[in-house]
Amino acid sequence: MSLVEFLRARRSFYIFGSILTAIVLSISISLGAAMRQHAQDTAGPAHVTITISGAPGSSHSTPAHHHWHPESFRDLNFKIPLGLLFGIAAYATIILATILGTSLNSENGRGGFAFTKPISRERLALTYFAVDAAAGVAIFALALILCAIALAAFGVLDRVFLDSGAIAVAAAGTGAALMWYGLLQALTSWNRLKGGLITGITWATFLIVLPLYEVTQLGPIFHTMLAGINYLNPLAYYTACSLDGQTVAVLSQLGFGTGQVIAFTWTLGIAGLAIATYGWKQVEV
Amino acid sequence: MKTITIEHLTKRYGEQSAVADLSLEIDEGSVCGLLGPNGSGKTTTFKCLLGLARPTSGTLAVHGAPVTPHTFETLAYVPERNTLYEWMMVFELFNLYKRTYKKYDAARAAELAALFKLDSRKRIERLSKGQQTAVALTLAFATRPDVLVLDEPASGLDPIFQRVVLDLIIDAAAGGATVLFSSHQIGQVERAADRVAIMKDGRLVLDGNVDTLKGEEKIVEAVFDGDAFAPNGLATDPRVRRIERNGRILRAYVRNDSADVVRRLEALGPKAISVYDLSLEDIFLGAVSDTAARNGEGI
Q1: In this predicted model, what pLDDT tens digit does every residue of A142-156 receive, in sequence order?
Q2: Which residues are CB-neighbours of B170 under 8 A, at least 6 positions away?
Q3: A119 and chain B: CB distance < 8 Å anywhere?
Q4: pTM: predicted TM-score of the whole model, two decimal places
Q5: A1 touches chain B (CB under 8 A)
Q6: Which CATH architecture has domain B214-295?
Q7: To the nearest whole angstrom, how far is the Cα of A9 from the nearest Cα of chain B?
Q8: Which ipTM was obtained for this model?
């Protein structure tokens, strides 16, 4: 039965991976264009020279009036902590986790196809979790590769360095993905609700509604209720990444440090999966 | 040896009783047809047997033990409604079964796929309802199961493939498999089953060997010149289980001595009188018909 989830996860990976690739390419092209504009504004009139590769004779000249060269970007003095790339890749993982987070639910409307196979429901659930986790690792890796390609295109890949907070950021980011995945599984594994609908509701709740409660006057009861729900919001734990000197740290809306974010998100994620597995075992078809 | 044992099964959904105190035993190598009107509890019985629904009370066993995941190595289930992954291709489902079942017979699957004219490169969603049923049946039979539980297995199939399915069921039973299947097509059950169980309103109303049930009663049918005739107290005759009156036709379902009932009807001066063996359809209709008709009230 792992084949079912493998095919399902692979399809999601392909679709989301393609979108992600398109986004990174768009950003890279836009950034390149912006930098070229900046160079034009500062370098004065000249011919545009686009270097296709580092080999002599591979340059192309076009009849324009300004000059830009990637070398000018490399001249800037900056370094890129790996934790920052991990932080970006974690967001991609979070998105895929929410797409795959209703995998158990998707079996519930099938009249027991999965439940009449010689595999226990617990083992089946663990198999699905493992396949989805592998997809999460794959999308994390893909996001990192895309970042690396984009940086290489600008000739600054060698500026990336392993900062002391990188591993912690990766652990916190993937913890947030696990937490959201576990939450969705716990919400949907034991019923026949539309998985996609629940996923959409969690996105709307976590991304829009909950952040608003702090800035709107909803009265003390609503405020307390939303504040409570916010403790289930992975994005309240893993809100952003920021540069802290030479390293990257996790910013949490709930005020937790990176270590606490890791502990809470992983614990809540695993608890969600345990609840989901128990609920799935009880499902009647 | 009993392959399937159901003892006092009751399944309630809230206040509604889907199955009420159902007991049924099916011998090894037997083909049991489960008949009943819509909503009579057939599918719920299957679900309880397979662990897909929890019985409110009662015990169920396959080969003497409750169903566990291990049981499904040798038990194949084809549900009434298509439950295949519609986004998968037929060959992917075959691969899935190959990975899942130790006894999966790829050659048998290919043979059955050819028999049902299945295109293995097609997605399930691109197949007709009948073809989807054929895929489900191909997969079920390719696992070489000892027990087959089939809920409306010929649903959506054309008459040619319906016949193929019945042959598969008979062939499986000849090979020692036990088959429990439901169908609304009484002719299919009559052809394939050696045993029939009839449910109504969640209860088992009749259960027995098909040939024995068919031999238990005769239908005595009398046709009169007009509809103004009196059955002459036949409704109270203990040998007459049921009387139907339809215009000029009087039909009596008679146990044991039909000859004497024929003589009593001949005394009424009918235009014609005939005696028939019961068909399974007669048995079914007799079992599920209203109590009033069964008792011959108003005749």
Answers
A1: 999 999 999 888 888
A2: B31, B192
A3: yes
A4: 0.84
A5: yes
A6: 2-Layer Sandwich (3.30)
A7: 13
A8: 0.82
